[in-house]
Amino acid sequence: QLQLVTSGGGLVQPGGSLSLSCAASGFTFDDYVIVWFRQAPGKEREGVTCISTSDGRTYYADSVKGRFTVSRDNAKNTVYLQLNSVKPEDTAVYYCAADRRPACYGYASQLVFDYWGQGTQVTVSS
Question: Tens digit of pLDDT for each residue in 22-37?
Answer without folding.
Answer: 999 888 888 899 999 9
